[in-house]
Amino acid sequence: MEHLRELKEPAKSEYHLLGRVDSVVLGSIYPDAPRQKSFLLLFIRSGAGELSREGRNWNAVPGSFFLLRFGISYLLQSKSDPLRITGFLISGTPNRLPFFCHTRADSDVRKLLDTLAGSQPCSDANSPVLDRLIALLQADYAYGKRPVLFYLDQLKNILDDRYAERLSLSQFAEEIHVNKFRLAKEFKANFGLSPIEYLINRRVQEACRMLLQTNVSVADIGNAVGMENTPYFIRTFKRKVGCTPGNFRSAPRQFTERFSTVRNGLLNKN
User: How far apart are alpha carbons 186 and 260 in whole angstroms?
Assistant: First the structure.
């Protein structure tokens, strides 16, 4: 990452590795940072699970990591597969970063995490690695490559799973406890679409699947994906896919390439 060349090494390290743990979560645990001016960096290596706090849930998937701050309780649970995790207890406070983030570690971050995983806690040798790791995250955040904030990840899960419900931006904001204008702006900045447009795309994506894999009528498919008004459903489908639902079903090979883009979530934004 070229912008990292501009970073200056700190005169004195701000961060120290206090402890490290490798664990397999078969049920549930309560991870936390046990002391002030420290945080827990939790890295998910494999498996499937969920991190919870105050009734909110976030997927814990391979390659994701969380910065968990002192004084807040979290619950980490495995799902179908055991979670293999590495936790790093780090002293210091990473400025200019959201204290709770959930993202995918890129290759540079992954290398630094692997280096930490093979090092000894309470050693000065860890400090340059930690400084580099935090500087990398801060630089990415400052240059726009920001981790997906937890509430945006939560909203995306709602749209992916509950597309058939009657949903509105005001409802999202109330459920997630974030201002609706901020929510819409940040969601579009991260995913390239407004929450409502993302929801429409998700509904059309599911409609395509049902048209190809079932004999359900066009009207009933519209109802099933949350668009009860059949004329509106047909207009929206044609605007997104380039043909009516009936034509899509009767000549699927003709629209194979278009369906591929629909399936991958790359619908046009018109």
Answer: 27
The residues of the chain that CATH labels 1.10.10.60 are: 150-270
Residue pLDDT, tens place only, 14-30: 788 888 887 877 666 66
Cβ atoms of 33 and 70 within 8 Å: the answer is yes
What is 150-270's CATH topology?
Answer: Arc Repressor Mutant, subunit A (1.10.10)
CA dihedral of residues 63, 178, 55, 37 (deg, nearest 10): 60
The predicted model scores a pTM of 0.50
DSSP lists the bridge partners of residue 80 as: none
> Is residue 216 a contact partner of residue 230, using CB atoms and an 8 Å limit?
no
CA distances from 58 to 7, 10, 93, 189 (A): 32, 34, 23, 20
Q: Which residues in the chain are classed under CATH 2.60.120.280? A: 2-142
Element (H or E) spanning 222, and its range? helix 218-224
